[in-house]
Design brief:
By secondary structure, the chain is an alpha/beta fold. It contains 8 helices and 9 strands.
Length: about 240
């Protein structure tokens, strides 16, 4: 198994089918990839939707009740079989080619630890997409974003085994905490200058609580001896180019 895609979900029945289909429709060979859905005890129609995929090859559903997003992702990674880990949240989607293009970079560059692409910000309430342009990889720039989208990024699984899993003690920004940890250990990333991911912005996600995000960001930065800043490439800075 080469790639394990981790999809945590809790009461996202309105979005989850498009997320699942965006993974299953990838051109990467099915025998070499798996989709692990970590279900957090949803009370909406999520379970009904998941039942439609019971016979799907290399798709597994893990049950995890009320232990939080980071724990769900960690459980998915710990139960994964792949050499590479890719994460997608239930309200986001993969664009065509993301698995083959990102894994190709890792296959051919053993010094690269993770790969991330440009993406589209989908402003759900306005039904509008905005292309997010990111610069070439720079350790300083990545640290200075103030957040890093784990969704759409492909990591070598060995990074989690060596440097630790997502911090389950913080309420959000687990991707920011993880990326700083990797940067502090001189892990090298690679940026693909092509939109391969769609990040959905709507009014009911954890990332909409900006006050909590800033407080968490300050706490994370302080832990690593940094000052919390948000540069133009922060995911919520939608119109930067």
């Amino acid at each position: 198994m080469k790639i394990s895609v981790i999809l945590p979900t809790y009461n996202y029945g309105h979005f989850i089918k498009r997320a699942i289909e965006s993974v299953l429709s990838q051109d990467y060979p099915v025998p070499k990839r798996e989709l692990i859905i970590v279900e957090g005890g949803s009370t909406d129609n999520t379970l009904e939707i998941l039942s439609e995929y019971e016979d799907e090859v290399n798709l597994r559903v893990l049950n995890q009740n009320g232990k939080g997003l980071s724990n769900a992702v960690n459980q998915g990674i710990l139960n994964s079989k792949g050499e590479y880990i890719s994460r997608i949240d239930a309200d986001d989607i993969f664009l065509p080619g993301i698995l083959s293009k990102e894994s190709g970079v890792l296959d051919n560059n053993p010094d690269i630890g993770f790969v991330y692409p440009d993406y589209h910000s989908f402003i759900y309430n306005e039904n509008k997409k905005v292309r997010k342009y990111l610069p070439d990889f720079s350790k300083e720039e990545v640290i200075g974003r103030g957040d890093f989208l784990s969704g759409g990024t492909m990591f070598r699984k060995s990074l989690f085994e060596k440097y630790g899993y997502y911090d389950e003690g913080i309420p959000n920004l687990d991707g920011y905490d993880m990326i700083i940890r990797l940067m502090k250990n001189n892990v090298i990333g690679f940026h693909i200058n092509e939109p391969l991911f769609e990040y959905t912005i709507h009014g009911s996600s954890m990332s909409d609580d900006t006050e909590l995000i800033d407080k968490t960001g300050e706490k994370i930065a302080k832990k690593y001896g940094l000052t919390y800043v948000k540069n133009r490439n922060h995911p919520r800075n939608i119109y930067s180019k």
